[in-house]
Fold DNA ligase (ATP).
Amino acid sequence: MVRKASGRVPGWVEPMLAKSDAGRLRSGPEWVYEYKLDGYRCCLRIAADGTTVLTSRNGIDFTDEFPELAEVYEGGTGVGAVVLDGEIVTYDEHGRVEFALLQERRGRYRAHAAAPKRETRFDDVAVRFLAFDLLREGDTPLLHRPLVERRERLAEIPMPDPYRVAVLRAVGFDELAADRRTPQDLLATAAADGAEGLVAKLRDASYSPGKRPGAWLKHPLVRTQDVILCGWRPGRNRLTGSLGGLLLGAHDPTTGDLVYLGDVGTGFSERERRELPARLQQRATHPFAVAPPREDVRGVSWVEPELVGEVVYRQFTRGAGRLRHTAWRGLRDDLDPAEVAAPSTAARSAQARVERDEPPVGTAARVTVQVESRRLTISNLDKPLYPCGFTKGEVIHYYSRIAPILLPHLENRPVTLIRYPDGVGGEQFYEKNAPNGKPDWLRTAHLPSTGSRSGRGPGVIEYLLLDDLPGLVWVANLAALELHVPQWAVGGGDRRLAPDRVVFDLDPGPGTTIVECARVAEHLHDVLTADGLGPVACTSGGKGMQIYAALHADDPATAAAYAKTVAERFAAESPDAVTAKMTKALRTGKVLIDWSQNNPAKTTITPYSLRGREQPTVATPLTWDEVRACRHADQLVFAPEDVLDRVEHHGDLLARLAHGAALRAR
């Protein structure tokens, strides 16, 4: 047993987290860079006498699972108590960090958890703790000190056994420049070394426990892979009765054997989850040359290896031969299973070339892809649509992954597109009419025009109705970054229905930010709740915020009248902080409650839509705890990857909008 009763171990510090850099690796003398590690995040807490406790990112005690790490400082550190932040990793035979080995070791540990402690040591899989931050030294907390100072102090902490505990190298921008190298060069090296990517950190940033403040920005390496569908498992909980995940395979590029590559469980549309199992031909046994691990195949139905799909992934674990962090892209009916090869050294080299911004040899500007039951031609996937370098391919990838959550909020609502054919910063234009050349299968609705944008006859606009993944991908390929919809839907016979929700658009005037919007939103929450509505908050993806509530109202004017009454009441009660009038001269230092967004002719940015800003931000639903806790504008800025992570954790925070309530009489 490693713990000592006499040791006073410092308290656990919830780890600071990195935000996505939205595809743009930061560059400049204010940044330092570390490899993004694929292991277990861990807080190493050491008392003055050497008593050591290891705590996971989620507060789980790792001490008994990794006793060899807890023993390193048995004699004390020589500098008193310390708290180290870092990552537990293991290496393959080539010296690359290998997460699969760590997982395999943990599986064995759990299987033997009831055995005596001497039997739960797995020294055949050596682990190492790589420290990248120092949070306490002796009696001195360091959270408010700049990173560069914490790093300098970390370098002075004794490392009695560097094979088990060591410091992760941080490379400064100036150091790279002195070697005539750039952050992109370092990224290419990271790719070649098998790392997950890079994390850029501000040199002067303090440590914010449990937060993603934007001072640490992660730049993961994402790759695509054709795969053969070899098995499937049913969904659980809300996915009961549909597809839960697929088991994947490919041919070994050397032997030609069909090998197991792992599984994929995210990125499917609801329709794919319903319909894919019917396309899979059952078989009695697995089709692989070597049986997959037993723990991977519980509850799996095996299928003939006849269908090909495409996934995106972040890492290929060479030792185990597994794809890591996968997401489904769609079927590839245009490919023969015999053509599908597992990732190889050549593929890794090609990825490193891409990360250095070198175009791969033979890449076509236009490609044909299978999206559900539709074949689409998409083009210029590597074209940057944002100043930060976020490409059209990344836009399509985001919309493909968020589609199961986004599409219900677009269903039967006429969509207005904002297109950026030359990217953000170039010409942009609104498009209400369905674009020329739209496919015949794309649904539209012919509705009376209330303005001058009609192009399909006198007073008529042919709106797009986006209700499936192929339609979403098709408009994304047109560089339609923003999707705007009204607060009403279309019924049978292209009939406009009454509004089914009310929206309050909170727009900060000069001298205010989303922080002031959050304070108004808190008050709105109380008022709407008292009126029997269930309010939901959402960032605009820019500087403002929207508050939605579902409702039942037969009169189309009900929502707008109610929103105006509430907005004017707020303006009367807090005239120094709120205005209900659009007049620019009245908006300085105030939040505009724009009630007019409920006018049937108006549209609002769709939740989960990208915005055409300098950075690729997303209109993001929020919890009310997040609204109440907002004290800085950057707390409520979310990149596409952040939103995908949030959806995986929270689900759809706007799901309650499907259940409207009648407004109480005021």
Q: What stands out?
A: The chain has four domains: 19-219, 223-363, 394-495, 498-662. DSSP finds 13 helices and 36 strands in the chain. Residues 1-6, 345-364, 452-457 have pLDDT under 50 and may be disordered.
